[in-house]
Write a structure and sequence with these properties.
Strand content: under 5%
Distance between the termini: 58 Å
Mean pLDDT: 95
Shape: elongated
Structural class: mainly alpha
CATH superfamily of the largest domain: Fumarase/aspartase (Central domain)
Largest sheet: 2 strands, antiparallel
Radius of gyration: 31 Å
Low-confidence stretches: none
Number of domains: 3
Number of helices: 19
Number of strands: 6
Strand order of the largest sheet: 1-2
């Protein structure tokens, strides 16, 4: 196939070089955006009287026909087409002849490709944000169901203090809310239309960039043509937001893997998200959670890949920038899949309330509350901390829990202890005593759930 840029060259491109340099095998997914952008550009050209109305009608009608054909049959993946932009223009030329060449007036592939990617990414981010919101809503729903479920809270993966399972689940709601905010910020910063920047310096045709931006749903236009065609920080920002999201999802999946093991026994995962072993018939493996945990590394790698590609590039456009698309497309697909996967894991999870409560009483999780009890009796906190530490050591030696100590045993460490100590360190009391904003008391958790539902307009 004749190259769009072939006039300068005497020899054709080597077949291997065509295969080495092509991007149509993966950027073909941009065909809706490429055609949408081309139609808007064509409408601007006729509006500015750069081409005739007759020429514009031929071009737009043919572009819409090409879109219908690709929708039905897909893109012909041939390395000689180089990329999706060349493919669409070549098909246009086949349909309407030389008038097709007028579409490229006041436009370069450099500003065209950035426009296509921005349109694609804007749509993808909105889809991802919807999936995040769906998962957030499920976390809140499951939290509401588990307000009365008491479990050990952990630091250093050691038992720390008893908490409501709802507090643990709502922690992921808050993580996802920050993720949603990052994607929304990313969306705002990329909302400038590149068309009209051309190769790197703008155009001498009387284009109306504002019209094209409005037609394509952008809030404005880019301000510097050289920056427009050479920068990919909007993709880097998306990849960074995606990497953080995947790390947050991975942390939840790690807990599902741990909690579903016999050593924890906190959760039974649904059969739909687990697999078995080809040799061990008893196995029920949390594969979906494990794979999502693994895919987090893949997305982090995509971010690093593009950062390294951009690190040493001089302005303006360089062919290296073609390497932005594979990590971008892979990340979009991976993030969407991971959000759906985690939704299924959480939706089918059955939490073992009795086991969680049993473990909440192990590991001296009420020790801080015993120290706080002594503080309310007038003991300075550092002294109370030391006293309770000695009580814990005593219980370890005797094979007891703090609540198993007799009143006389406790008083041997501090004479201020009285019979009210047992109520002060009861699990339900300990959990409900933490009524500070963001705390684990059932009253505070119910308030937060109601607040979230009111803010988001949810009815659970």
């Amino acid at each position: 196939m004749a190259k769009l840029w072939g006039g300068r060259f005497q020899k054709g491109t080597d077949r291997f070089v065509e295969e080495y340099t092509e991007s149509i095998s993966y950027d073909s997914r941009l065909y809706p955006e490429d055609i949408e952008g081309s139609i808007a550009h064509c409408e601007m050209l006729v509006r500015q009287r750069i081409i005739s109305e007759e020429e514009s009608k031929k071009i737009i009608d043919a572009l819409k026909e090409i879109k219908r054909e690709i929708d039905e049959s897909g893109v012909e993946i041939d390395p000689s087409y180089e990329d999706i932009h060349t493919y669409v223009e070549s098909r246009l030329r086949e349909k309407i002849g030389d008038v097709a060449g007028k579409l490229h007036t006041a436009r370069s592939r450099n500003d065209q490709v950035v426009t296509d990617v921005k349109l694609y990414l804007k749509r993808s981010i909105r889809e991802i944000m919807t999936l995040i919101e769906d998962l957030q809503r499920l976390f809140v729903k499951r939290a509401k169901e588990e307000i009365d479920t008491i479990m050990p809270g952990f630091t250093h993966l050691q038992h720390a203090q008893p908490v409501s399972l709802a507090l643990h689940l709502l922690a992921y709601y808050e993580m996802l809310e920050r993720d949603r905010g990052r994607f929304n910020d990313c969306l705002k910063r990329m909302d400038e239309c590149p068309l009209g920047s051309c190769a790197l310096a703008g155009t001498d045709f009387p284009v109306d960039r504002g019209f094209v931006a409005e037609r394509l749903g952008f809030s404005g236009v880019t301000k510097n043509a050289m920056d427009t065609v050479s920068s990919r920080d909007f993709i880097v920002e998306f990849l960074a937001a995606s990497a953080i999201l995947m790390i947050n999802l991975s942390r939840f999946c790690e807990e599902m893997v741990l909690w579903s093991s016999p050593e924890f026994g906190f959760v039974e995962l649904s059969d739909e998200v687990c697999t078995g072993s080809s040799i061990m018939p008893q196995k029920k493996n949390p594969d979906v959670a494990e794979l999502t945990r693994g895919k987090a590394g893949r997305v982090v790698g995509n971010l690093v890949s593009l950062l390294v590609t951009l690190k040493g590039l001089p302005l303006s456009y360089n062919r290296d920038l073609q390497e932005d698309k594979e990590p971008l497309f892979d990340t979009v697909d991976t993030v969407k899949g991971a959000l759906r996967a985690v939704y299924l894991v959480l939706e089918g999870a059955r939490f073992n309330k009795s086991r969680m409560r049993e473990m909440a009483g192990e590991g001296f999780t009420e020790a801080t509350d015993l120290a706080d009890y002594l503080v309310r009796k007038g003991v300075p906190f550092r002294r109370a901390h030391e006293i309770v530490g000695k009580m814990v050591l005593y219980c370890i030696e005797k094979g007891k829990r703090l609540c198993d100590m007799s009143l006389d045993e406790m008083r041997s460490f501090c004479e201020l202890v009285d019979g009210g100590v047992y109520e002060a360190i009861a699990l339900e009391k300990v959990v409900d005593s933490r009524q500070s904003l963001g705390g684990t008391s059932r009253k505070e958790l119910k308030r937060r759930i109601e607040e979230i539902c009111a803010q988001r307009g949810w009815s659970l």
